[in-house]
Amino acid sequence: MATTRKAADTDDLWTFSLFAPPSALSSQDDDDTTSTTTTTTSRRLYQLQRSLTEGGRKVTTRVTTFPTDATTAATTRVVVDPNSNTSTATTTQEEIEIVATGTTTTNKNEGGISDERTSLLVNDETNNQSKDTTTSTASSTFNPTGWTFSSPFWTLQSNILLRLTYKPAWQVLPAYTRNKCHNKSNNKSKMLGATGSFAAACCCSCACCGSCCDGTQTDPYRSITFTSTDIRRVETLPSLTVRGLGECSGIRVYLEYPNDCFRLTVPTNVPQPYQSAWNQHVQHAQDNSTPNSDNNNNNNNNNNKSFLQQMRQEMEQDRGQAETVPPILHDDDNMSNPHVIGPIVTFAMPKDHRDDDEPPIAWKVDLPPPAHAGPIAIETVTVMDGPLLVVSNNTTNSNSDSAYQPTHVYVNGYQSWSFAGSVPLGQKQPKPAMPDTFSKAFNHGATLPPVSLEYVANHQQQNIPHHTSNDYLSDFFTCITSHQEELAVDDDTEIVLDTKHVTTEQQHQHPQRIRNNIKRPRRRRIVQRPLDERGGPALVLGWLSQRRQFGIISMDASLQRIQMHASHQGQLLLLHNSSNNDNLHSTDWAFCQLEAPHTYDEEPLVHYLRAVAGYNQAKPLQNGPLLTGWCSWYHYYENIDEQSLKANFATLSSLRKTCPTNVSVVDDGYMTAWGDWDSLKPGKFSSTNSMKAVADNIRQESMRPGIWLAPFTCDKHSKLVQQHPDWIIRNHQGLPANSSNCGKFFYGLDATNPQVLEYVYHCIRRAVVDWGYSVLKIDFLYAACLDGNGKYDLSMSRAEAMHLALHTIRSAAGPNTFLIGCGCPLGPGVGYVDGMRISADTGPTWYPALPLPWWDHGTLPSLRGMIRNSITRAPLGHRWWHNDPDCLMLGSTTKLTLEEVASSASIVALTCGMLLLSDDLTKVSPARMRILTKIFPMTGVSAVVLDMHSLKDGHGLPTMLRLWCTDVSEKRDEFRRTKSQEGNATRDHNEEAGYFSRFATFRLSETPTHPNERQRSCIHMVKGLGTWTILSLSNWLDTSAVVHIPPMALAPPPEAAIAAPLRVPTSPDHGYHVFAFWSSKYQWIAGTPEHPDADVSDNSNNDDDAFSTDAPLLSKLLGPHETEIFHIKPVTPQTPQYLGSDIHFSCGQEVDIFHSQEHLLTIQLRTDYHRVGHIFVFVPIVSTSQVRATCAGEPCRWTTVGNTPQIGNSGSPNSVLGRVLQIEVAAHGDGRDNDGTITLEY
Questions:
Q1: Polar residues composition bias: which ranges (predicted)?
Q2: Residue 626 · residue 997 · CB < 8 Å
Q3: What's the pLDDT at 1087?
Q4: pTM more than 0.85
Q5: Mapped to the 3 state alphabet, what secondary structure does 869-894 carry?
Q6: 765 with 711: CB under 8 angstroms?
Q7: How many angstroms separate the Cα of 1060 from the Cα of each of 343, 688, 958, 1057?
Q8: Does residue 620 contact residue 884 with C-beta atoms inside 8 Å?
Q9: What gap in Å lies between CA 255 and CA 635, rounded to an integer?
Q10: Is residue 841 flagged as an active site residue?
Q11: Are 1109 and 1051 contacting, i.e. CB atoms less than 8 angstroms apart?
Q12: Which single residue of 199, 496, 743, 784 could bond 805 by disulfide (Cβ 3.0 to 4.6 Å)?
């Protein structure tokens, strides 16, 4: 586990700390009038601090000076008021003691080092002699290290400022690597066939493992580690702006390249055999970065250059708006020499975070080219390397259980199809089951640093990265969490809801699951699962973007070494003919946040996800209504034609009263080959205008036309390959780069080539302008940045190529086209795509079907993989884009059970992803069609996953999701009144969901509501329906199991609110109604299932006792892969209540009016769609003899299905309070009188 450190008696501080050596200059030295102790032999401690205690709302920048010959420290405090642009500086004198064990003691004067965790940056000479030695003074040995970021619970320590891994630039040239691999590559190509699929798929591993494809060692990589001793100058920044974080206080550190570090390893001149190739690549880089001044030259090649330059100029302008670029520091005091002396690291802490939000720290690196050596190729920039330290609350035992030990790590995969999920520490990270040849490119984003020779004081020593197969690797971001062990309790009040299935289809498929009603108490040992919001501290690490490099985070199982690597993968670092900041090569902003225990608002990633959305200017759900529609792929695959498509569009139109759709997507199969997008299949499509005719037909059926494209791919037999073989990305052997196998191998087109971008631009324009498609599904996007050095411009990283590819697509499509990214690296897609596939392909089976390995946890098609990522990446939806979980497969032609179809429908509905069908809807059984109608229309809001970071099995799937509903506001009533005059044929039926998504979605132009208000997971209902919780519970096992809901998960959290001072009631005196949606069963439960933060007892501080012993346990027997959706509503004893229906999973969205008066209840159902089913209502009566029910003015059937007991003074049920009635209802949607009107007299 992580190292445990003792806590000091400190304030509630979040502190970033950095030491600078005596030789470092400071911005204070330029005009320091406050300190008299500063000398050139003094070292300084720089800190950014913020306290979350009352009154601690200001960000404080502290600069503490340690003279080498005294124990007195002078501290300069720059206090920044977030409400103004002013800052004040004060200086204090303090006695500082540094204890050998690593704790710092100080008098408590304001302005001193009150945080003991900063002492991690100081190393006492006597530490290695004895742990019991006496204290030492501030003149103890300075440890050349990096920085710390600490909270009262955890501390993240980096032992470096950065590590640069590189090699001479000419060693990444294709001409050089091809020659290096030539003999063995030729033999392998001859054996497999130079034009065969396997030859095309072969990918030399020179760039990623340090060895050639024949097993011989390649030229070594070099590395330089920068620590505090390399600091030349430090600047405190009262104000800098980072988009997504706002105005920040900062510290900027100027480092110095070690003397002769490059001269010894990088020749000034490129070897003669590669001089010509080198000159060509330098020219390509200059052409792509330098504006073309020859405006009169009409040469096509120059036009292509101008196009690429325009794209890059737009991207650079956006970067300038996103952040402040640091000024360069030259290698002479007069700042007149054009050579920058070394890397620049900028740290920033936001000023205006909410009072109760833990402040993050962000930092980035700016690299200049080496001034006195040849050019280099950067492989990796490691921006963080060190342990996570746990602060113990027990001052006598550092290994006390009172410390919050990390328990889980969230692993995020590279692109749409890659694994994502939380893994318990100690368990292995799930991996793909397919060989690398077939799957590596799917998951290959950033790479770990290779073995390198480390520069140390004018000589080199081998630096072997300590990475093992047991390390956890996460692309783009990760989250380390802490949770208590599961709590086992004896339970006498278990409630098992009826699981009897009545449909013939279910009895035929799963006769072993048929059970009798079980409602008797059974004493057993119950294990209550922890919830994420009950967790301990959390550490969130990531990058604000992946526009510069792909980033990867590696962690060992003990968290003693956490590393963040910006992966450049052989990117040339060139010196431009300029003395300005064009010479700086920047990384993306890294991000770190330490969260306190029990403060997870919706999920621990919430603040990071919002920062990324802000930085990349994401606009989720703002380009048209939510998409619900049909896609041709899973029914027709590649066998589509013009007539069959039109027939399906007509079918969709005929189902408008059942499930109206607003988009139809023509998927793969219309073109003769990938790459030849304007060459339509003869005999399938009548003319070159067929695609326009298909789009027109979709539009005539009142749907948005969509089309599938993979513009950065091409088939090996395509005309494009024959005409432009130089457009293909190639590996170090010169063979086409490995694309992985999706049923075939294909080629990736080089996004750094201006001709490729011009070609892609015209492909997109043809689809949007000439053919008329307003929805584009852009697939296999990772092909634009395949790993390989056979590219046009080696000065661009793979991430920059991906960024440029997406920018080109968006520029061509225009701002109003709905872009769906698929097979897309996640980071670059933020801000460009409107929808994003966040899972692998779904499939007709639960596990990948034979002959594919069923145990795969990677990218193979399966329903399980689709459901897993739909849950684990649910927090991304509505913040970065509209999540696309892939199509919902209903058809009986699949091998999916009815329960599995209902489970997938439940997850899609609860997370509010895209709802795309892909069946022949005329052949779907009524039972499966009813599943579809029960989740349509969508709600516009996304559920919170309750147990994603607390699972015991890393291969498992989260089992609980929660929404909450309220009628407190009148938003839904107001919306429906404004739309009541519009006919069904003239409006999009997702318009209502789109309207409510505004309150649940990240928006650049609006100040976000506090996460504790949980607007993102709130469904607004019509007046009269009340407030309640929706909770889904799933059994993802392959056998039936009794699953349990922790009592604290049943009720909405007390923070949840629409408008202060309203708080949702969480302690009803009469218990709860519980309605199970899919089984249509009712149950009453007693108890007070409070939220963890609620007051449960005036005499005890032990929350666990209150939740585990006093509250009832809600359980249900679920079959394999089955999901149930529960509705939990507090009982109101004097008034009727709407408890739910089997019409819509929300159990309220189907209602237009709920009006109660004395002995009469009136309910008006929505009449937009044809629906037949039952509603369930509670009425405060004992006798039902006078109950009369009507629907559309005609008597209808009703029956009593449950009793709600009266709670006596003893707290136990002693009589009947009311009855729960089930009423048969119908809404035909055909305009008949009193359609959907239900009355109940009692």
A1: 279-294
A2: yes
A3: 65
A4: yes
A5: HHHHCHHHECCCEEEECCCECCCCCC
A6: no
A7: 49, 60, 32, 7
A8: no
A9: 59
A10: yes
A11: no
A12: 784
Three-class DSSP category at 519:
coil
Residue where the block lists tokens 């011009």: 758
Query: What are the two backbone dihedrals, phi and then psi, of residue 365, each rounded to the nearest 5 degrees?
Result: -120, 135
Which residues partner with 165 through β-bridges? 223, 380
CA–CA dist 1206, 1190 (Å, integer): 28
CA distance 1166 to 984: 12
Q: Please tell me the distance from the alpha carbon of residue 711 to that of residue 784, in angstroms, as a whole number.
A: 9
- Cα gap 365→165, rounded to integer Å: 14
Q: Tens digit of pLDDT for each residue in 872-908?
A: 999 999 999 999 999 999 987 789 999 999 999 999 9
Contact 380, 799 (CB under 8 A): no
Structure tokens at 388: 């996570």
Q: What is the pLDDT of residue 696?
A: 96
Q: What is the dihedral of CA 231, 235, 237, 242, to 10 degrees?
A: -40
Weakly modelled stretches of the chain, pLDDT under 50 = 4-10, 33-39, 70-73, 75-143, 183, 189-217, 293-300, 332-339, 394-401, 487-527, 578-580, 1059-1066, 1089-1111
What pLDDT is attached to residue 117? Answer: 42
Q: How far is CA 971 from the centre of its chain?
A: 29
Q: How far apart are CA 863 and CA 827, in angstroms?
A: 25
779 assigned to active site: yes
CA distance 520 to 524: 12
Other CB atoms within a 10 A radius of the CB of residue 1187 amount to 16
Task: Report the amino acid identity of residue 1205.
Answer: P
**Annotated active-site residue in 667, 715, 779, 1103:** 779
Closest Cα to residue 432, out of 451, 422, 448, 419? 419
Q: Which two tokens stand for residue 777?
A: 């599904």
Query: How remote is the C-alpha of 726 from its chain's centroid?
Result: 36
Tokens standing for residue 281: 């690549």
CB atoms within 10 A of CB 636: 19
pLDDT digits (tens, 9 = 90+) for 785-798: 999 999 999 999 99
CA distance 195 to 189: 8
Helix residue ranges, H only, 482-605? 504-509
Residue 29 DSSP label = H
**CA atoms of 116 and 128, how far apart (whole Å):** 20
Among 1043, 1056, 1050, CA closest to 1074:
1050
Q: Quote the CA–CA distance of 51 and 149 in Å, as a whole number.
A: 13
Among the listed residues 1144, 1161, 1162, the one whose alpha carbon sits nearest the alpha carbon of residue 1237: 1162
Q: Are strands 59-66 and 72-80 parallel, antiparallel or unpaired?
A: antiparallel
> Could you tell me the two tokens for 451?
């073995």
Alpha carbon distance 56, 493 (integer Å): 46
